[in-house]
Design goal:
Length: about 425
Amino acid sequence: MANHGKGKISYILQAINTIPLIFFGVLILAIGTNWFTKAIYAEVEEELRNMAEGISITLDLLYPGDYRLTEDTPRRLYKGSHDLTFDYTLIDPLKEKTGLDITLFYQDTRILTTYSNNGQRIIGTGAPPQIVEDVLQAKEACFYNNMLVYGTSYFAYYAPLYNGDGSAAGMIFVGKPSDDVNASVKASVYPLLLADVLLILAVSVFMFLYTRKFAGCLLQIRSFLKEVSAGNLNAKLDSQIVGRSDELGEIAHSALNMQLSLRTLIDQDALTALYNRRSGNAKLQKAISDFTSRHTPFCVALGDIDLFKRINDTHGHECGDLVLKAIADTLRQHMKDRGFAARWGGEEFLLVFEQMELEQAKSSLTHLSQDIQALEVPYRDDVIRVTMTFGLTAGNGDGVKELLCLADQKLYEGKVNGRNQIVC
């Protein structure tokens, strides 16, 4: 009996010490779980908001002008002069990188979407009336944590798209499946519950330390996404956050992938992977600034593929694209450590020779011209050979427009006088 009583006292003492810990542990776990869930929801909302803002900013940067829908049949949606209809080059890579679904509405009708129903994109369908009232008519962005889209529950963010006159031309939707968000919540809460059962006091300390660090990571990710959405595509994210093996690490990787996708879309030419005209213009402006402030010499050349139209007319545009890629690869290799190359438009390319005087640049350009003449582009049963004409001028403190105009005049002179030459 004594031993039995002693056993009861032991259990009672254990209960007296354990029950309060269990109570506070459960309370802390409940509070922590609630906070954790809200934090993830808030983080998801921030992620969706920043993605929506980033896409809107990207569309404005890539295609300046208003949204408009043509009256002809079939009707087409334009942003400025660019036809957005069936143009998935922006949203599909973002879907692949981040797993988020994206939809572009004109007024209340889906024009572009990554969401598919039975393998078909649900374009041409309308937005729910409540969304139209909350977002389109009220001109207010809204976040929903239980939005049904054709039977799938989403954490969804809707934001109006504005034209230059301030009118709401349509909406953008960015959504993350609720199952994915809830899975992230469960994957984070269950380990905490197990640790609380094994050692409640340790869990309390761990929760305090972990949540503080977690909140810090969220703040850094949020700050990073805000910078990217504001247009800073060179923003940095702490490598320790990126190196995490949990959901925060995945979100950080997604954010970096989004940043890389946006930078590629904005800075590179899609066909040749050279700098596009916008980036080339910006880098040329920097070369002019360096010359003005530090007298750093540079030279500018505009090059044009000779008789390129004949290639397209004879062999087709597929062959023309292969020639452009081959030329771009040759330019990229040659300009490495010498400056940079950009696709200026069609078959025309901009070359900027950094820290070079005119004679040095002409010598380098001569070797480049010889490499291009030796280039062979196989296409079906033919081998395509091309030449290029270049207009070269020394850089100075004049503006971009003046320098390019001078280089273009020299290029024109070379074209008129027989092509396949360098005029400086």
